[in-house]
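User: quick one
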Amino acid sequence: MFEQLPLLTILIWFPVVGAFLILCTGNEKNANWARGIAVFITVSNLLLCIPLYLGFDTGRYDMQFLENHLWVSAYQTRYALGIDGISLVMVILTNFTGLLVIVAACQSIKVRISQYMAAFLVMQGMIVGVFCAMDAILFYVFWEGMLIPMYLSIGMWGSANRSYASIKFFLFTFLGSILMLVALIFLYNQTGTFMIQNFYGLPLGVHTQTWLFLAFLLAFAVKVPMWPVHTWLPDAHTEAPAGGSVVLAALMLKLGVYGFLRFSMPITPLACEKLAFVMIVLSLIAIVYIGLIAIVQSDMKKLIAYSSIAHMGFATLGCFMVYDIVADQHGLQNAYMSLEGAVIQMVAHAFGSGAMFLGVGLMADRYYNHSRLIRDYGGVAHTMPVFAAFFMLFAMSNVGLPGTAGFVGEFMVIMSAFQTHFWVAMIASLTLLLSASYTLWMVKRIFFGPIANAHVAAFHDITWIEKLNYILLAAGVFFVGLYPQPIIDVLRVTIGHLLLQSMPPDLAFHVPTNVFYA
Amino acid sequence: MSFDLSQFTAALPEIFILSMACIILMIDAFLSVRFRTVTFLLVLATLASAFILTLCQFGAYSTLAMRFGGHYVVDDLAVISKLFVYMFAFFAFVYAREYIEARKIPASEYYLLGLFSVLGMSIMISAYSFLTIYLGLELLSLPLYAMVAMNRKSSHATEAAMKYFVLGALASGMLLYGISILYGVTGNIQLNTVGEVLKSHQEFVSVAALIFVMAGLIFKFGAVPFHMWVPDVYQGAATPTTLFIASAPKVAAFAITLRILVQAMPGLETYWVQMLIVISVLSMLTGNLLAIAQTNIKRMLAYSSIAHIGYTLLGILAGPNSSLGYSAAMFYIATYVLVAAGAFAIITIMSRDGVELDKLDDYRGLNARNPWLAFMMMLLLFSMAGVPPMVGFFAKLGLLEALVEAKLVWLAVLALIFALIGVYYYLRVVMLMYFEEPVEAVANTPIVVSSSMMAAISLNGVAALLLGLLPSFFIDICRISVS
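Assistant: Done. Structure below.
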């Protein structure tokens, strides 16, 4: 019965329409109405993901659930939606995270609740749109459109320094994307269409490809974020409300890596091959240097923000290792593992750090002046034992303990790196040491030891709504950590095809075709 | 010239507006003060009828149709520009009414002057000889000077009117001087003949004429280096007057610039393209940078308008080497005017009891006092900043496509960098409206907006969003206008 429905359109626009409904009808007096509608919309959106998953044919590498209409005839822009394996995983992740954020907000947000719900619903719709867009301008519209609600949510519900953080966030990301826009228009001039797939395999020279790659790099590196354009992230994360931090960490950072996979690698393979070492070095800097910075943070949210940058370093490392691996091994097997590790790292990081941001927000809510400083806490495990147990699990996932989500992706990336660049793998492995240091040290100072002060002593343990949220997240962490097979199944063919498309001609002849289309 | 009815049907909108303006002037003289609203309604009815009359011409003049001995022309550009002018003037008058009444500015005179100015724009858009152009330009400008000066009690307004008038007269003089040189070179004042002759006369004198004509046009646009009047006039004039100056005349100036440059001076293309590159880069730079420093929102929007004119000129200068340039510029100016009119309308609506609320600080916490108004303002500001999915983004996109097609990628990148600077000051207003709490003194006084105003501003704001989601129709109209 679901075949006829334009599922992707519904997933994108249902939350947006709902947001307008809430804006028009909701006010401070009937806050429960806003909460009810928002939860209803996110739950039904998540339920709509079930037919999406069931209807998805994992054996095909092309786009599925296609919708294609002419949008602006003058610019040859199409309203073209479709998903492949990577998009499917990210769309489901987005709707899952959206539900968590809305549910968490039901309790934690007290002022302007209807506007808050509306902002996050619009954001959710836009992010789903980014993952589904097959037309470059449509992609860009969603990519930028998402900034507006994010900007507002940081600025309206954030903490003391919110104005600075929100405008820094907006300007950084806007700066990144303007060059991408010029690159897209340039590609349009070459092909006469904005369909992303028609950009693949264009016979562009190395010189042109390098410029295009750099334009894309700025856009995506800001979003990931990669060192040295990461500086907006700690500010934005710290000042954003808990829900904003979760969306930033779980979804917005993934857009950068998604951009690399969708644009940079298939459109500019020559430049990618040429500049892969730069990307690898930048990723390693993110992993090691940012990891070191994370250790010394005194603000919990800042610490998790820096750890996010370090973990996303693995995702970019996994993406750009593939060129050296293929050149070295004349085969796709390990390159495949590397790329898949990158995607799984994206999902795992969403669960782990999203949960930790929620946890910090929840503690700060209970603290009388909403402090996020580690030194204000201590012995929280005595007053909130259930919460402490959950938080420990997510901290372990952040560390990369086998059996949790954080382990799988990092392990796959490091494994495949060992096949070619021993030293890259060695340096990347330092993360095990570093992430254990900053995460566990923070957990120790917050949760263990004697109760620090009267404010901590007055904490009450998590309520059933919060518990529900954490059970869902814990399920996610264990699912990815113990049984990632369903995700791998969905990704297999897509990533195999992506690898073939992303290989420059000089490497491509090593590669036996139809390896993955069995 | 024999009597021929078709001469007159082409000029029907102008003839209608002129006769109605005279009739309304008579009627108004005999109306008692209580019934002065009739004047207002008649002016609106005139504009609406002129809009319909012009709409009937739509499609009927797809090829250039010369009338009145080649001094007057109707083509798609003229028809569509006139439609925009009547529409924006209509909105400007609707927004003006409550403000004018509250300040005891003589209302009937105000609307009638406006109507004459609209007539001037209309004539200028349809002008096909330099004489008609000058006639239209002066008829457009003189009522505007008076409208600025009408707010007698304000010393700012008087100062603004003085500056506007003196500088305007200077610019007219330059334009006339340029025209006289052109006549000297070509022996003609009709655009197409001038254009023919200039193709074989690319000497220094022709370029000098081009410079003078360009100076006059650039002044009307308010672009660097003839932008000095813009901030003072925008700030000093009563807000509805600012709204009026910022809306319809820009479209008219655009139409006539396009006509002069493309139809009368195709031979001097290389020169005016280079001049426009300098002008537009300087306008974007100056406008965007100086807007950051402003504390008065009208002045900020004035500088932002200078920057937006710079963007519009990008489309014109890309035009000769790109199929999209002129239509992109048309789309840009039309959408910018729509959005700017909305922003000035909100300033008009905000002001109460003779107090201008035009400081940036007055917008502090607007979301807490009137969420819908704040939301509309946000849509308009994001549209000016060129953030999708607002219509401003598609306007910029069209320009960028044209620039890339014309092999001016560096200019496209530069334009976007200036846009980034622009984002900062638009966001600052959003920040004040949404992130700050209102000042104690006004925190509990909600902003009351009459329902007609609310309807108009909602239409304006939602248009900025909906035209962004579904811009196709609007873009196609603009493409027809310059094809």
